From TrEMBL:
<dbReference type="InterPro" id="IPR020583">
    <property type="entry name" value="Inositol_monoP_metal-BS"/>
</dbReference>
<keyword id="KW-0378">Hydrolase</keyword>
<dbReference type="GO" id="GO:0042132">
    <property type="term" value="F:fructose 1,6-bisphosphate 1-phosphatase activity"/>
</dbReference>
<keyword id="KW-0460">Magnesium</keyword>
<dbReference type="GO" id="GO:0008934">
    <property type="term" value="F:inositol monophosphate 1-phosphatase activity"/>
</dbReference>
<dbReference type="GO" id="GO:0006020">
    <property type="term" value="P:inositol metabolic process"/>
</dbReference>
<feature type="binding site">
    <location>
        <position position="81"/>
    </location>
    <ligand>
        <name>Mg(2+)</name>
    </ligand>
</feature>
<feature type="binding site">
    <location>
        <position position="84"/>
    </location>
    <ligand>
        <name>Mg(2+)</name>
    </ligand>
</feature>
<dbReference type="GO" id="GO:0007165">
    <property type="term" value="P:signal transduction"/>
</dbReference>
<protein>
    <recommendedName>
        <fullName>fructose-bisphosphatase</fullName>
        <ecNumber>3.1.3.11</ecNumber>
    </recommendedName>
</protein>
<dbReference type="InterPro" id="IPR000760">
    <property type="entry name" value="Inositol_monophosphatase-like"/>
</dbReference>
<feature type="binding site">
    <location>
        <position position="65"/>
    </location>
    <ligand>
        <name>Mg(2+)</name>
    </ligand>
</feature>
<dbReference type="InterPro" id="IPR020550">
    <property type="entry name" value="Inositol_monophosphatase_CS"/>
</dbReference>
<dbReference type="GO" id="GO:0046872">
    <property type="term" value="F:metal ion binding"/>
</dbReference>
<dbReference type="GO" id="GO:0046854">
    <property type="term" value="P:phosphatidylinositol phosphate biosynthetic process"/>
</dbReference>
<keyword id="KW-0119">Carbohydrate metabolism</keyword>
<feature type="binding site">
    <location>
        <position position="83"/>
    </location>
    <ligand>
        <name>Mg(2+)</name>
    </ligand>
</feature>
Length: 252
């Protein structure tokens, strides 16, 4: 199967159909609750239905933010977040994306993350590198004088210490998409230790970041492991280097 083509078709159709809801609280409304306990808005459901239209005929297992997990007994599992950054989307903040991660026998295989409005397709296949619209990308080299990160702290993070070591912080509100900014050398790191992150948030960008040379760990600096479901919430650290990772570990 051409996972790149499938993912891009889904992303483009979602963008076409749901932009009518962008920044329009008057048009959107809550229609239910996701398996992880978050509210499901109408644009979430419309987006997910588009993805399912393409994926269900393939007979693959599906994990989605709104639907949960569908086990078809397939060797293939597709993990999707149709709108990464839903709060941004409904409030008219132009930073949200589509996350499409493919796993074969539960092992990472292919990831595609689409940044809506900018037409940026980030994608990677294990062992073949990471790309942005066909151009090879990689994390940037660590420079302590030019560090910029995104972070989502808990009460234990030493904010004062963080500000002493890191002068530039940006918080965008779409974790999967922000991970791609690490892969592309825009950010040096991103971390969430609340914990709030789920597999649907990171599955696609995990693969992209790995292929771009990023280090991805849990809060203890150990290699990140996560189950392919829509409910477990985990702590995630993504860094462009061991030096950057050690700074984060010292802060949290």
């Amino acid at each position: 199967m051409d996972w790149s083509k499938i993912g891009k078709r889904i992303a483009i159709e979602i963008e076409k159909e749901v932009l009518q809801y962008f920044g329009r609280k008057d048009r959107s409304y809550v229609i239910g609750t996701s398996p992880s306990g978050d509210e499901t808005e109408i644009f979430d459901k419309v987006s997910e239905d588009i993805a399912l239209k393409y994926l269900e005929p393939l007979g693959v297992n599906i994990v989605s933010e709104e639907l949960g997990a569908i086990d078809k007994g397939s060797e293939w599992t597709v993990v999707i977040d149709p709108i990464d950054g839903s709060f941004n989307f409904i409030n008219g903040i132009p930073f949200f994306g589509f996350c499409f991660g493919v796993f074969k026998n539960n092992n990472p295989y292919f990831g595609l993350t689409y940044e809506f409005l900018t037409k940026r397709f980030y994608e990677a296949k294990i062992g073949e590198g990471a790309f942005l619209n066909g151009k090879r990308i990689k994390v940037k080299d660590f420079n302590p004088k030019d560090v910029i990160i995104s972070y989502y702290p808990d009460e234990n993070v030493d904010i004062k210490k963080l500000r002493e070591k890191i002068k530039r912080v940006r918080i965008f509100g779409a974790f999967g998409l922000e991970m791609c900014y690490v892969a592309n050398g825009i950010l040096d790191a991103i971390f969430d230790v609340r914990p709030k992150v789920r597999a649907v948030d990171i599955a696609s960008s995990y693969i992209i970041c790995k292929e771009a040379g990023a280090i991805i760990t849990d809060e203890n600096g150990e290699e990140l492991k996560f189950e392919l479901n829509a409910t477990d919430r985990i702590k995630v650290l993504v860094a462009n280097s061991k030096e950057m990772l050690n700074i984060i570990l010292d802060i949290i």
